[in-house]
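User: Just a sanity check before I run the rest of the batch. Below are the structure tokens for the first item. I only need the designed sequence back.
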């Protein structure tokens, strides 16, 4: 009897203890893996949330900057700046009020003259757009944002620091975060006569940022470049630089700030928890900022360019939250382990528990994959995962939408050959995506092109990062976004900076720059080069007789003819008022004289309609021609000689083409 009992007990005890130890390892490993998996999901989600927040800020400020440039082109403002028409101020007030009511996000829309005095101001208060009476308008000549904006040139935009509004020398209560965005305005003579300034509700930007980042598990924050909270976990810590205190993230979380201040984006786990950040640069092309001033009449210390004007979009998951996730799993693990051990003692003979372990592992893996797909499917950017050979192994819906390729079509294909090589022209050795695999480093590419399924190019910015599995690089993760609109806006701004708004021809600054380059090339290689200075005869009479709108139509019509008459290698631009310049490359003086005479005859014989009330009118032009020679040392002298020739043409009765002899 004893023998039978021992035969049963010994295997039972051995099996029970073995299964208990095995269960301990399985349950502990499962919950540890599950915790690490969820932590990885959280970290990726936090990166995505900071990216969404950064993009929201860029979109909002780009939109406001475009509104400011549109306001600066107001017809009423031009009437006031060009002719001093006081009635235009009233019309401008109505335009500002309509803009304020339509947008609903501007605390104030203002026009300040060159002395800093408000000439028009519209206040927005709880849905009501109010045009401020003249007696209540203020002089802002001592405020930094007026002086910093007034110093700028055409099409340049000033974006102030995000700070608190100051009224009558004190910080307004309740606190009103504000960004001031402005641009100087010029009359047709090129004289600067004031600025357009919009006070954008910073509170709305911060509120939208919080909403945009609502998918975060942490606390959303916004820091300025000095580490002061613009949005923090505790409102009492915010706006320290305005209240002249040192409530900065550096003093509360020094280790995190050291990492944030030295990198564009990243993540760090400290004793305080998980910090995730991304740097956002709100300044667009032709935009500047300054240090600003916390004093009502203080001046800013210096201008700040795009690289130095930045904010940090941050999320913070406190250590208590992370420990809570871990503790819940420990408790669940202990409960589960107790039950399994109890079952193991009751049914130790069921060796089939090994099968259950396998099923649990498979289930955990599927849950992990499901979570990963759930996150990537909601990302606002395209995401591709490649193996070590650069072949596609995963692709989110946004990537399919942007590229036009389905995952089924590209799965297992080398992405470099299908969407990158033909579009970018890069060889394998130059391809940043493939170099990630070789060098195990992250590549951030600000501008490149991918090829869509229909053969068209997609302008993109992307980040290619190593795909790490068990501390080993197993492939590449490519996160990309469509930058078509950003690229188009950049090209539009460049065109605005180099072309005359009325005629579409090159502006004076650009024609001078290009002429200087063409002159240098002609001198170096011994080529011909000629310049024609053109003046519309009696243009003032057109304005006086038919009005300035008709004058503008005359300039535009002449500009169209000039554009049609010049070759693609030539340069045509508006030099100022009714004066134009044409640079004829590879053209000697004789050829330039023939071209100028043909242009003069064409203009004289081509009637134009200036307005509906007048009949067709014929313009005439006087043209001065000069060509490169040994006596001319630079492009300025060439322009001076053409100008002298123009003077001769006008002095000899106009509607003529003249040259100045050596």
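Assistant: Here's the designed sequence for the first item:
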């Amino acid at each position: 009897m004893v023998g039978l009992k021992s035969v049963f007990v010994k295997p039972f005890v051995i099996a029970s203890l073995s299964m208990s130890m095995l269960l301990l390892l399985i349950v502990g490993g499962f919950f540890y893996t599950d915790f690490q998996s969820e932590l990885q999901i959280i970290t990726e989600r936090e990166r995505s949330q900071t990216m969404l927040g950064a993009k929201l800020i860029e979109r909002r400020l780009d939109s406001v900057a475009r509104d400011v440039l549109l306001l600066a082109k107001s017809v009423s403002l031009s009437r006031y700046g060009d002719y001093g028409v006081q009635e235009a101020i009233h019309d401008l007030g109505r335009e500002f009020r309509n803009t304020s009511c339509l947008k609903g996000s501007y605390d104030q829309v203002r026009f300040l003259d060159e002395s800093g005095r408000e000439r028009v101001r519209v206040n927005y208060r709880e849905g009501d757009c109010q045009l401020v009476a003249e007696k209540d308008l203020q002089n802002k000549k001592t405020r930094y944002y007026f002086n910093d904006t007034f110093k700028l040139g055409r099409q340049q935009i000033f974006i102030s620091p995000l700070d608190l509004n100051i009224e009558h020398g004190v910080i307004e209560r309740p606190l009103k975060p504000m960004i001031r965005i402005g641009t100087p305005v010029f009359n047709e003579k090129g004289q600067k006569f004031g600025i357009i300034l919009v006070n954008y509700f910073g509170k709305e930007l911060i509120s939208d940022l919080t909403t945009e980042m609502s998918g975060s598990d942490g606390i959303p924050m916004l820091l300025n470049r000095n580490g002061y909270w613009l949005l923090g976990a505790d409102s009492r810590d915010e706006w320290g630089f305005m209240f002249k205190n040192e409530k900065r993230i550096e003093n509360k979380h020094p280790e995190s700030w050291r990492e944030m201040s030295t990198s564009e984006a990243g993540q760090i786990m400290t004793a305080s928890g998980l910090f995730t950040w991304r740097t956002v640069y709100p300044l667009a092309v032709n935009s500047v900022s300054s240090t600003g001033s916390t004093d009502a009449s203080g001046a800013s210390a210096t201008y700040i360019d795009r690289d130095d004007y930045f904010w940090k979009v941050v999320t913070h998951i406190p250590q208590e939250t992370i420990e809570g996730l871990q503790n819940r799993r420990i408790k669940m693990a202990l409960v589960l382990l107790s039950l399994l051990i109890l079952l193991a003692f009751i049914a130790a003979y069921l060796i089939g528990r090994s099968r259950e372990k396998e099923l649990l592992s498979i289930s955990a893996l599927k849950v992990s994959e499901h979570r990963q797909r759930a996150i990537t499917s909601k990302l606002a950017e395209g995401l591709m995962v490649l193996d070590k050979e650069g072949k596609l192994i995963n692709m989110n819906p946004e990537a399919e939408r942007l590229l036009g390729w389905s995952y089924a079509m590209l799965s297992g294909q080398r992405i470099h050959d299908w969407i990158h090589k033909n579009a970018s022209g890069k060889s394998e050795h130059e391809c940043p995506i493939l170099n990630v695999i070789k060098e195990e480093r992250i590549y951030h590419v600000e501008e490149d092109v991918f090829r869509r399924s229909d053969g068209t190019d997609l302008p993109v910015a992307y980040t290619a990062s190593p795909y790490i599995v068990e501390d080993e690089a197993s492939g590449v993760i490519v996160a990309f976004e469509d930058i078509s609109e950003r690229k188009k806006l950049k090209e539009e701004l460049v065109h605005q900076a180099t072309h005359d708004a009325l005629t579409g021809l090159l502006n004076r600054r650009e024609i001078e720059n290009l002429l200087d380059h063409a002159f240098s090339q002609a001198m170096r290689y011994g080529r011909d080069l000629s310049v024609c200075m053109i003046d519309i005869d009696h243009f003032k009479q057109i304005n006086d007789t038919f009005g300035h709108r008709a004058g503008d139509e005359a300039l535009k019509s002449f500009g169209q003819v000039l554009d049609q008459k010049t070759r693609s290698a030539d340069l045509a631009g508006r030099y100022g008022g009714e004066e134009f310049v044409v640079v004829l490359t590879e053209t000697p003086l004789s050829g330039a004289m023939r071209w100028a005479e043909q242009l003069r005859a064409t203009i004289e014989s081509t009637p134009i309609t200036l307005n509906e009330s007048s009949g067709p009118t014929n313009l005439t032009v006087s043209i001065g021609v000069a060509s490169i020679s040994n006596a001319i040392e630079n492009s300025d002298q060439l322009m001076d000689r053409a100008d002298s020739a123009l003077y001769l043409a006008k002095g000899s009765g106009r509607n003529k083409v003249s040259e100045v002899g050596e």
